[in-house]
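Q: Hi! Curious about what Large-conductance mechanosensitive channel looks like structurally. Here's the sequence.
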Amino acid sequence: MLKGFKDFLMRGNVVDLAVAVVMGTAFVAIVTAFSDGIITPLLAVFGSTNQLGLGFQLVSGKPATFVAVGPIITAALNFVIIAVLLYFVVVIPANKAKKMWGAKTDALTDTELLTQIRDLLAERSAGGRHEL
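A: Let's find out. The predicted structure is below.
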């Protein structure tokens, strides 16, 4: 039972997934700090003078009915920033590396491969007749 678990952990996919989760968590922490330090104060400029931030009040005089729009905008911006960073930092370099060092995608079909073998055998047998 432990051998199967060890084999599972040592697969390349599990290790790659673990690295991706750690990198994703680091990106989230960086983007959240950026949002909290820069984007949230910029959104607060457009809000009212109260402490609740950017949003609107459903019932005046009841703070519990305040609909906060600022955190929704901040979360959407976080998502876009993370997606853009991951695309340019991970996806594009991985695609370039796959093109450079990856396997060729121009694989021969079975028919083409058999035709090449037939032609090579025909050349070999034709060459063998001349040697006798």
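A: A fun detail: DSSP finds four helices and two strands in the chain.
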